[in-house]
Model the fold of this input.
Amino acid sequence: MIIGNWKMHKTSEEAAAYMRAFLPQVKGFKVGLAVPFTALHAVQNDAVLIGAQNMSDEMSGAFTGEISCAMIKDLGAKFVLLGHSERRDVFQESNSFILRKVKRAQEEGILPILCVGEKEGQELERVLQEQLKGISGNLLIAYEPVWAIGTGKTAKPEQIEKAHRFCKGLLGKKTEILYGGSVNSENIAEIASIKEVDGMLVGGASLNPDTFAKIVHQSGRKK
Ligand code: PGA
Done:
């Protein structure tokens, strides 16, 4: 699976235009898009898996400004990104808070994609151990070293392999792990060929439908 993460980009009109250009180019590929809440309704389709980029840990209630799991499901979301480093850093989401969201998503029957990864200078194993504490059940992991996100730097194949193997050691061999962090059309082929990499999470390079379609083709992830 290769997933694009639009972050806080695109109105619903722009999202619909993107889909018109993108869908015909990616027939037969295993691809998903994590879009803003406000674009979910505009990207519904049968070929590309649609997801949200966050959700509340609560089911409903007096939580002004929050969006629940039932609400994103209602708009066609099949997965939800949780614990993205921007949520952890900019919005101070803690491991225990993110764990509650993962459990909520699993209870409500939507696939959580839990993002993990170390900052520059942090010890990889210690960080992953803390971020994956209490995590189990049906989910995907996205390993994204924070220093590689939006910087144009990517981890070396041996670093990626080590991190993915460590996650699988904690969660079980069958857990699928995506790699993310400055994935683009220049490095996708090498990253896709790493044995432990089950898919990719692509931020900036997923914003243009033609560029992302090219990356999807290069990833070779067919249905
Ligand atoms: P990037 O973002 O591809 O722009 O580095 C990846 C992500 O944040 O998921």
Q: What stands out?
A: Residues 157-171 form the longest helix (15 residues). The pocket of 2-phosphoglycolic acid is lined by residues 5, 144, 149-150, 180-183, 201-205 (CB under 6 Å). Strands lie at 2-5, 31-34, 49-52, 79-82, 111-116, 140-143, 177-180, 199-202. The first strand starts at residue 2 and ends at 5.
